[in-house]
Amino acid sequence: MRKSLVIKKFALIMIVASLLMPLSSCHGNKKRLSSNEESSFLITYSQKEIVIESIRNGVVEHFFYKNGEYFASSDSILFFSTVKDTIINVTSCERTYKIIIKKEKDGVYKTYSYYVNDMGCLYFLISYSYDSKYQIFQIEKCTNVVYQ
Question: What are 38-71's pLDDT values in tens digits?
Fold first, then answer.
């Protein structure tokens, strides 16, 4: 039950700014992507924004372009980068999350999100794989976490 609350709060943090901006304001390329877990996503690319909508549960996430990288909503947390590998610790609603961004082999970049419990253990939430032009081609979600 507590784990579900943690995930709900994290999801809310990630979409707070998206509630302020209607999805219809995004004009650009749209792509539908299915993940390994039978979830599908509608990804909309515009000049300065990537919008990822989970078809299954309707969660919408906005990522904004600034200085060659993409940041999560208006809170300016780095989320997608082809510039540098980095590890970011985020605390929100007394919960800690870790975002790991790194370059894999063959020009693939990955962003991993983890929940960090009180003892420092990491619990995988979601990862995004993308190319050097920030075109997302794979989203992997933890099957043990209920996304609402």
Answer: 568 899 999 899 999 988 778 899 999 998 999 9
DSSP single-letter state for residue 119: T
Q: Are 111 and 126 a contacting pair, CB within 8 Å?
A: no
Question: Which residue(s) pair with 41 in the sheet?
Answer: 33, 54
Q: Maximum Cα–Cα distance for the chain, whole Å? A: 43
Query: What is the spatial distance between Cα 42 and Cα 92, in angstroms, rounded to a whole number?
Result: 26
* Chain segment 78-116, per-residue pLDDT in tens: 999 999 999 999 888 888 999 999 999 889 999 999 999
Strand arrangement, sheet containing 86-92: 86-92, 95-103, 109-116, 122-130, 136-141
